[in-house]
Each structure stands twice: as structure tokens, then as C-alpha cells.
Amino acid sequence: xxxxxxxxxxxxxxxxxxxxxxxxxxxxxxxxxxxxxxxxxxxxxxxxxxxxxxxxxxxxxxxxxxxxxxxxxxxxxxxxxxxxxxxxxxxxxxxxxxxxxxxxxxxxxxxxxxxxxxxxxxxxxxxxxxxxxxxxxxxxxxxxxxxxxxxxxxxxxxxxxxxxxxxxxxxxxxxxxxxxxxxxxxxxxxxxxxxxxxxxxxxxxxxxxxxxxxxxxxxxxxxxxxxxxxxxxxxxxxxxxxxxxxxxxxxxxxxxxxxxxxxxxxxxxxxxxxxxxxxxxxxxxxxxxxxxxxxxxxxxxxxxxxxxxxxxxxxxxxxxxxxxxxxxxxxxxxxxxxxxxxxxxxxxxxxxxxxxxxxxxxxxxx
Length: 366
Description:
By secondary structure, the chain is α/β, with parallel strands linked by helices. 47% of the residues lie in helices and 16% in strands.
């Protein structure tokens, strides 16, 4: 089984070499398609054993991805971005996809520092029926599903990780590019929930809070139009952003949160928000079991099939919330313990230690 890695790149001088270094000697072919770099991305790529191609940018990510697929010759395809790093997790990872019963496979994506991993479909057979769709947030899911139905195949899992390092860049610089692409795609397919979320996120970044709220509400409306079988936890993003925005603005979110929790009952971030609001209202009985459950999760090994979570809700935020609940209940010694636990990972470590000392003093005065 030969594996081809495909990349589309533009002005990726900062990232390209580390990506190619992670692939060289592990995959059998690396296809790099440049879409108009004006820096030294192409020169840096040529330092590695790559098949280099060029594709004129046409405001269509799928067209560029599919152009890269046309140049690949392997039996299987890995699609990867320049700001990602390829990392096999087990020695037999190739055998996990070299099987006749699967058309594609998910791997483990680490989206950013401080967040948990989730599964993403990045590996698939080189098959002319499998192609990317969507001018932005391009995916092969639709064509992979069609191949699976036609050939009686399924999607497997492969013990490979991708470490994404690019989210720390200034996202505001990408807004002028992303907004017209998102609007164009949503005009063609208004049921793309994630694109509604991303449109809202980009509008908020641009300072248009009203536009962001409207986009997120449109995303929620799109969820309602989907068949129940098509709704995954990853479709929850418009709810999450809208609830956080409205709550942060002092608006009531009870009905919206109840609706979201009913649709996504296992969503840990929604559970966290619900418990946080309950604690703010003084409902410790409702909040406490959620914080205890979240604090019991090992953030370093936790992996969800659909969602990445901020590790803070399992570490210092959970411990700080447990401390506050204990303090308000008069359990000052317990509060001190939780504040010290929070201090282990909290960015405001000194504040947590001061609160631990105050709680200990209250416990000693009883």
C-alpha cells in the first residue's frame, strides 16, 4: 500500500519545512500544489522529495485540493495542511488502513495548544469518485459516504496524530478572504452548519456583533432542517458561540441552553456552561456533580470523536468552580484543596494560592 500526502499551500514559508520533515521518509509520495505564493514557500518545498505543482487560485479550496489529488499516484491519500505535523502513534498504523473493507479513515487531530484531540477524516482511498466539495471548509465526507454505500465499505480509524500549530496566528488577517467565500458557499448550501458558525466567528472578529448573532441563529435554524441521523455533536458550534456571547452580554440564555442540551446531551462544554450559570445563581446542588465529573477527566488523554475541548474545563476551571462551591457551602478546607489544585495549571496561579490561603484561614477559625 502506497500513501500519498497532498498539500495546497500559499505563503507558508513559516510552516512548510516542519510539515514536510514530518512526512519525509514516512509516506511514499508528497504532492505540494502552490496556489500563488509570493514568499519562498516553493523554494523551501524543493528542499524535500516532493512532487511540486501549481494551481491558479480561483477562490475555491475544493478545486485546489482536487488538483492536488489529480497528481497523486498512491493507493491512499492523506490530506494535510502546511501548519500541521504528521505523527504516527503506533508501529502498525499502515496496516490499519491497508484493508479491503474501508474506504477512508479518521485520525486524531490536535487542533491547538491547550485543547483536547478529536477525530477527523483525513485518509481515504485514491478513487476518482472521492473528491472535495465546498469552496471553503472543503470536505470529502459526502463523496466518501457515497462510495461506502455503493461498495459496502465503512470509515475506519488510524493511529496517527496531526498536530496543528497555526491557530495562534492573527485570525483577523484572514477575515477579508473568508467572509466572501463563506457567504458565497452558504448562498449555495444554507445547510452547512459549521459555515454559519464560522461566518459568525469572522463577523465577531470584524466587530460586527449583530451580524455574528444573526449568522449563529441561521446556523441553529440549519440544524433544525437536518435529519436527526445527520446531526453530530460537531454541529453544536452555533449554539455554543451564541450562548457564550449572549450570556457575556448579560442576556438570558436559559431557553437556548435547554434547547442545545436537549439536542446535544453529551456535549461537555454545554454541560460546563449550564453548571457555571447554575453556580452563579447559587444552585450548588445542580452545579456540583457536573464540576466533579469534569474534574475527573484526564485532559491529557481525553479524546472525543467529534469535538475538541478547552482543557481548562477539566483542569483549573473545574477545580476553581469546585473551590467556589465548597467555600459557599462553608466547606473551607475542601475549598483550599481545590484552589491549590487549580493553581497547578491556572494562568492566574498566584490568585488561586491566595484564595487557598484565605480558605485555609477560614477553616482554621472554625
